[in-house]
Amino acid sequence: MLVIYESMGGNTKRAAELIGGASTFLGAETTVCSVTSVDLHALAEADLVFVGSWTDGLFLFGQRPGRVGRFKKLPWLDGKHVSVFCTYALKAGGTVGGLSKVLSRKGAVVVGGQAIKRTELDAEHIGQFVADQFEAFVQQAATTAA
Ligand SMILES: Cc1cc2nc3c(=O)[nH]c(=O)nc-3n(C[C@H](O)[C@H](O)[C@H](O)COP(=O)(O)O)c2cc1C
């Protein structure tokens, strides 16, 4: 498992670390890295990749993934199963959808995603998200194999 994050103020980094912790707890070998220094070996090995950003916008409208250009520079994702997340303050709008689109264009198979409020960056909320995404991944992988 790999977690890739973009963070300006630390919230999304914290979300990524909590996702990594939950993933380790569920028994997966896990690496967490910034979008600007992706561990390519871990990327090649990962069955599921969590990718997350912060929400940029005008707070009530125009939301998009923060520094989305950094995600466009990721290597080709070649059928990797990806789960998308973002952190936000008031309204995440189309941030998860926008990031999903960017990653799909890179060849990723998006399993699911969630916007996480910055006041809910705790093990309980994030553990539930990670468990749900693991389940969605297993179901999707089974469908693809069938
Ligand atoms: C320039 C800027 C624009 C933002 N626009 C929005 C917004 O439109 N909606 C929202 O809910 N949060 C918005 N936020 C809040 C951040 O998305 C939120 O605090 C996030 O958790 C920051 O993550 P980080 O600490 O990893 O950078 C904005 C923050 C910044 C710096």
Strand count, sense and closure of the main sheet? 6 strands, mixed
Whole-Å distance between the termini? Answer: 23 Å
Residue runs with pLDDT of under 50 for 5 or more positions: none
Give the second-level CATH assignment, the architecture: 3-Layer(aba) Sandwich
Number of strands: 6
Radius of gyration: 14 Å
Q: What is the CATH C-level name?
A: Alpha Beta
**Helical coverage, percent range:** 40-55%
Structure classification: alpha/beta
Mean pLDDT: 96
- Percent of residues in β-strands: 15-25%
Number of domain modules: 1
Shape descriptor reads globular
Topology overview:
Elements: E1 2-5, H1 11-25, E2 31-34, H2 40-45, E3 48-56, E4 64-65, H3 68-72, E5 81-88, H4 95-105, E6 109-117, H5 123-145
Helix pairs in contact: 1-5
Flavin mononucleotide is lined by residues 7-13, 54-59, 63, 87-92, 118.
